[in-house]
Structures are given as structure tokens and as C-alpha cells.
Amino acid sequence: MENPKLTNQDKKAQIVIFIVSLLVFAFLIWLIYFKPVPEAQYSWVAYLPFVNAIFNTITAMLLILGYKAIKDGDKKLHKSFMLGAALSSALFLISYITYHHFQGDTKFLAQGTVRYVYFFILITHVLLSIVQVPLIFLTFYHAFRANWSWHKKLAKITFPIWLYVSVTGVLVFIFLRMFN
Ligand code: HEM
Predict the structure, then answer these.
(1) Is this structure's pTM higher than 0.90?
(2) 20 to 30 Å CA-CA from 136: which of 22, 88, 102, 160?
């Protein structure tokens, strides 16, 4: 399908989305690797990785339901599921940030083949989680502007990446619990 030309407003929105995404990325790097861990520790913090895994599971399920809805031609339902997936990802992010406020990164200690599998999953998960942020915003932006050809074009990339990141988020959690 022929994509309509992007308007000046679309281009401005793109710039804002890229700047916001870069700021999110820089903030997370600082939070996980550079921010000093506070002295006060609370027992409930230990449950947050589990909460994160639940939100990632919910996101993955809503994405699949949203995809099925649009393939069945139900646009309203598709919109609701995709907004639900975004809400679930936002709640994940709040829980993730809270956890990393109290805790730095977790070391994976297991050796052997499982270590290679784990790092393959972790590295692809991290790289695609960076890429997915502007993609999600842009896909929503074009949906709300009713730029359907752009929405469809971007959605074909955003959907599999977002799904992969959600599923591998759960896998990283399982690997850390099972093999560490
Ligand atoms: C980032 C979130 C979203 C993703 C990943 C997504 C994904 C998709 C996918 C995979 C398609 C099918 C593309 C194809 O036919 O190959 C699609 C189409 C569509 N989406 Fe979304 N969607 C998202 C958010 C939304 C939202 C919020 C709305 C409503 C405001 C929406 C409305 C639509 C509509 C109306 C179509 C059909 C367009 C057409 O066939 O003309 N989507 N979307």
C-alpha cells in the first residue's frame, strides 16, 4: 500500500518520540548501573521480579489477543487489547524501576550451555527493549492519527518485537530462578 507523506506535525512527533525514548534509555542505564543502592532495604522488594514477570506475561497475552482481534476484523477490540498491553507494560516499568531503585543488576552464576542460552536471551531482550520504546509510541501515534497505512507498516515490526521482549522478560526471570 502507498504510504501517505508524513506531515510536519508527524515529523515533530517523531523527534519528540525519539528524544523521550533516549531519555528513558539513559535513565534506566543510570538506575541499574550507576545509581547508588539505598541503605534501607524492604522485604517486599524481593517479590518485585515476580510481579514484573506477571506483567510481562499479561502484556504478551494481551498482544496476542489484540493481534487475533484485528485479524478477525474487530477494530474496537483490537484497540482495547493494545491499550491494555500498553498499560500492563507501563505497570511493569513502574515495578521494574522500583526494584532497581533498591537493587542493582543480578549476576547469572551458572556455567555451561545454559549460560550461553541465558546470555543470548538477555542480550537480544535488552537490545530489542531499547528499540521497542520508540516503535510502540510511533505505532500508537499513527493509530490515534488514523494514519492506517503507517500504522500497519510499523505494527508489523512493533508487534513481534514487543511480544519477543515480553516473553524473553519472563524467560530471564525463570532462568535466574531455576539455574542461579
Ligand atoms: C503499539 C500498539 C499496536 C500494535 C502493535 C498494533 C498492531 C496491529 C497490527 C499487527 C495490525 C494488522 C496489520 C496488518 O494488517 O498486517 C493492526 C491494524 C490495525 N490497528 Fe493496530 N496495533 C496497535 C495499536 C492500535 C491502536 C491503539 C488502535 C486504535 C486507535 C489500532 C487500530 C488498528 C486498526 C484500525 C487496524 C486496521 C487498519 C486497516 O486495516 O486499515 N491499533 N494493528
Answers:
(1) yes
(2) 102
